[in-house]
Amino acid sequence: MKTDELRESYLSFFEEKGCVKRPSDVLVPRDDKTVLFTPAGMNQFKDQFLGVGKLEFPSATTCQMCLRTGDIQNVGVTAYHHTFFEMLGNFSFGDYFKREAIHWAWEYLTDKKYLGLDPSLLSVTVYQEDDEAYNIWHDEIKLPANRISRENEHENFWPAGAPSDGPDGVCGPCSEIFYHPNGGKDNVEIWNLVFTQFNRVGNPPDNLKPLPKKNIDTGMGLERTASVLQGVRSNFEIDTLKQLCLAAGDIVGTGYDFDAPSGRPVRRISDHVRAITFSIHEGVNPGRDKESYVVRQLLRRALLEGYLLGKHEPFLHRLVPAVVEIMKAPYPDIAKTVENVQSTIKEEEEQFLGVIEKGLSRFEGFLKSAEQAGSSVISGEDAFDLHQTDGFLIELTEALAAKNNMSVNRTEFNNMMQRHQKDSGSGAFLDSVMSEGPLTALHKTISETDFKGYETTTTESKVIGIIAEDRLVESMVEKGHAHPVVVVLDQTPFYAEAGGQVGDTGFLEADGIKFEVTNTQKNAGLYLHIGHLLTGKLEQGQTLTATVTEPRRSGIQRAHSATHLLHHALHTVLGENAMQRGSKVEEDTLRFDFSHSKAVTPEEISRIEDIINQRVSEGAPVTTELMKLQKARELGAMALFGEKYPDYVRVVQMGDFSTELCGGTHLSNTGQVGLCKIINEELVAKGVRRIYALTGPKALEKTRDTEKLLLEIAAQMKVPRPDDLPVRIQHLQDELRETKKQLTKFSSKSLAGTADDLLEEAPVVNDVKIVAYHAKDASRDQLRELADHLRKKGKQVALILGTVLDGKVALMAAVNSDLVKQGLKAGDCVKAAAKVVGGGGGGRPDMAEAGGKDPDKLDEALTTGADYYRSQLEV
């Protein structure tokens, strides 16, 4: 059975059992702050498992794309580990339970209509205290006792060890199913059935309380099961991943053979490029924080594998079409971002290859230092320095060291790394999610707030929940405004922050009662009116008049409709690859992020602005319609890749030129925008640009402020009209250039004199003059010029110079060439000095530069540099 066939077979089987087939959730769940990437199929059903919100279906089945990095060292080494993988799952939310889950799993695995595995090659494990599961397997499935193993809570409970170690919250025993190919010699876990039937409260004993509704959460690895069905020895040998490995081997130039020395690195490349392709497709580009950091590390690890195989040029981006080819059947949208994904990967590859080349000279220095010290080990501190300063992955340092018959102190490196390493987010729920809070309790009695904000800005609403001091209360009288209060209503006109649009503000009022809403948020269907009680007493069950601040709402609508016009204009000017990557919409102010590999030129900005305002002048109608997601896609509605959409979506159309999925509030025609003015365009992340713009009154105000500023500048420059400013400025620039030339001549003479004074006063160690000088207000060029003067005038001189530029330290060290031959290195001096000011750097043995963050320690750093020279010369 092919991998794509297995996916559809599984989903169809559980649909026949009454489960609702749901699409895969996004890989990067932006509305879930507990994880960076989706780690399991159950994540998208968190609310259903916790009893939060309205239950739209009692059971479900999915094939979920996942990403975990906890076992990254094993990827390509073992047969079954991955970073990106797909998880088949079937779930129950108070519907079917243990008996059905076990019987259906056995039926699907062994019935010849489905997988048809030999029952004699299957075994199971159960939690040691779960007699119910054991009896179902033994008495009903008829599995022999010697093929049912009872395991402890750390092996067969979710979360692992929960009864004893926690966390509090939903938990339960599990039963794992193993396949034993080759007559039982091998052991492959293919399915895990989790029976979430308890709520853990406190410490044992008697801390597992039965849940009123018991749930089922199962997970079967798609790639792992495909490898069993296809009779291959590794997930990387299945029909899909084998194609990717072959493509990677061809591009790297080694070919691919499972047992070849290049087999493991090619498998790692194949795994990682699939993970980064999907991540970048969803808008997560390589970077320094959170998800972006993980993507950068995966990309660099994959590139490193190729580099160590001799591929010293960008190649990963060429594998993106191969990833798309094997994954486009279940995830067709991935084919729409190929060009953007490739350009993003290639740019990061080029940057990292540059990092490697720059860092090689520093690595050579550490290698020689170890050799001179009579050691065959590069210190963990030096390896960590290469990692932090030069971006060297530890695997690269170790590989290069091994080529020189050396090793790296990995323990020391790991200890230093642990203090800086970021959480990869490969776990499932965090502790905070498992415990009940006031909202969880409220959700158990109320499903959702009825939103009326598309039709009106005022409603008569009933108070159905009050949260004060992080707990549910029946009533309250606010004393002071130390902490905000949350009011939940049965219906509301207030838009809750979503899709980049900020939440509404306004008031909740009745006789003697006035509550100011300063923000509106949403939690699984409940609208949270956040603010302060100004007068009166707030009580559950009260009827209040809810009124949105209309001028602010109108400004937000102008800005939001303008983002759709901007998106249309970007596609017209820059092309379809300029896809939305996020937005922020406030009162007559908007921020719009989009994928683009280079800065937008002033000419392009003008064309974009012209198109927007042309559409504004047309006064095109803005219409909205609620429809099925599939129908919206067929209409060509633009969606944000990586965004999670419900089954029914709101489609916003503007004239015949813009159709987008959008849940925000909008104008009734484009003419109501009034005016749109782009005020800035900038880079915010690799391959992502950002445009800021104003609409309506703020756009007009900005235009007037600019005109006023030009008039003021014209007056100061003593020209009659702003139109004369370019000629006047050009004249002043010519004068300034001439003045700088004269100043440079004067500075050169002054620097030559300074060099004479410094050499005359310099201490001498073994006939070498040591100069350490704080050159106040000097530029980098002047530091270099002074260093050149000192080396020319002094026969043997070792110097370190420093200055402060824009609040940061600049250091420069240099020595005469004769001293380099004697083993004295400017790079080692400047490195020692840079550590004092919280920085780093390097360069040639005869001249090196560094930077630092602490100007207050510059003089101390210069002393450290001089002491380094002295210590080397006194030997």
Automatic annotation (TrEMBL):
So what EC number does this one have? 6.1.1.7
Provide the primary localization. cytoplasm
Query: How cofactor binds (record note)?
Result: Binds 1 zinc ion per subunit.
What SMART domains does this protein's entry cite? tRNA_SAD (SM00863)
Query: PROSITE patterns, alphabetically?
Result: AA_TRNA_LIGASE_II_ALA
- Indicate which residues the UniProt annotation says bind Zn(2+): 560, 564, 662, 666
**Subcellular localization:** Cytoplasm
Q: Enumerate the UniProt keywords alphabetically.
A: Aminoacyl-tRNA synthetase, ATP-binding, Cytoplasm, Ligase, Metal-binding, Nucleotide-binding, Protein biosynthesis, RNA-binding, tRNA-binding, Zinc
| Region feature Disordered, mapped onto this chain | 838-861
Swiss-Prot/TrEMBL cofactor(s): Zn(2+)
State the top-level EC class. Answer: ligase
**Catalytic activity as recorded in UniProt:** tRNA(Ala) + L-alanine + ATP = L-alanyl-tRNA(Ala) + AMP + diphosphate
Q: Which family does it belong to?
A: Belongs to the class-II aminoacyl-tRNA synthetase family.
Q: Which HAMAP family match?
A: Ala_tRNA_synth_B (MF_00036_B)
Which NCBIfam families does this chain map to?
A: alaS (TIGR00344)
Q: What does this protein do?
A: Catalyzes the attachment of alanine to tRNA(Ala) in a two-step reaction: alanine is first activated by ATP to form Ala-AMP and then transferred to the acceptor end of tRNA(Ala). Also edits incorrectly charged Ser-tRNA(Ala) and Gly-tRNA(Ala) via its editing domain.
- Full protein name: Alanine--tRNA ligase
The organism encoding this protein is Gimesia maris
